[in-house]
# Entry
Amino acid sequence: MTDHVTTHQAEEDARNETILIWVNGRIVPKSEAMVSVYDSGFMLGDGVWEGIRLYDGKWAFLDEHIERLFEAAKAIDLDIAMTPESVKSALLETQKANSMQTDAHARLMVTRGVKVRPFQHPSLSRSGPTMVIIMEHSRPKIPRPIRLATVPHMRGLPMTQDPKLNSHSKLNCILACIAAEKAGADEALMLDVHGFVNTTNACNFFIVRKGEVWTSTGDYCMNGITRQKVIDLCRANGIPVHERNFSLVDTYSADEAFLTGTFGAQTPVGEIDGRLIGTGQMGPVTERLRALYKDLVARCA
Ligand SMILES: Cc1ncc(COP(=O)(O)O)c(C=O)c1O
# Structure
């Protein structure tokens, strides 16, 4: 298949060649934004990150993103060495330097920093964390509903790299995505350790059956901020919503399926493992939730 699509596709924007990037407190041109080859993130994927979007001058759900970043850093025993307020200031400083007002996406990354030797032990990271903010002009452009394929790569138990961590190392998800692409799909639908449908390699996953919205229990997947907003919007607008276990049988016969994530908000799914989902196009519940979410973002801005 040649027409692959990804859930993080955006319009080409030439301005992204000349963006300014925040690297450890300095704002530098993209061509000069570098970290050491000894960096824990480069060497071992030892770090955590957040993806955040700018709509009409306001970073959507910023407090939730910063809170999740600090929670993840605490979980991996990484001292960010900044307060949540100063991380927010760094984000705003980068936004100002790039004169961005809307339709921008930030990837805020913190690693355990530069190591003194090229080995795993965290005690070898002695000079403090590395923090980088990449901020790009970004208008999602996903030309058609996504095709998913289930893959052998699972969402694991919390004892082995808790899937709730937005860690730099995403190898499990990357391998899942590669397997899905090789199967002719766009991205991967991942099952949990019990075989229930859980999430995709980069987004949270929902189905709609007979007007009800279903998503996984929330175990084994990212505690997505967009996922939670969709659940809250359903509850506030009289749309039945369930966080529950469900299988591929329930999924293939769903009326609609969609993904959630900060980048694409709600992205329709047209096909899973070669089965058409509903009509294969965006369904009415997904469309309604997209409108409700857009409105929520506008109200919060
Ligand atoms: C594996 C995975 N699932 C879901 C999400 C979506 O989370 P959010 O809605 O907070 O962007 C992300 C985003 O970082 C992710 O990496």
Notes: The longest strand covers residues 47-55. The pocket of pyridoxal-5'-phosphate is lined by residues 51, 166, 173, 199, 202-204, 222, 224-227, 260-262 (CB under 6 Å). The chain is about 25% helix and 25% strand. The mean pLDDT is 97.
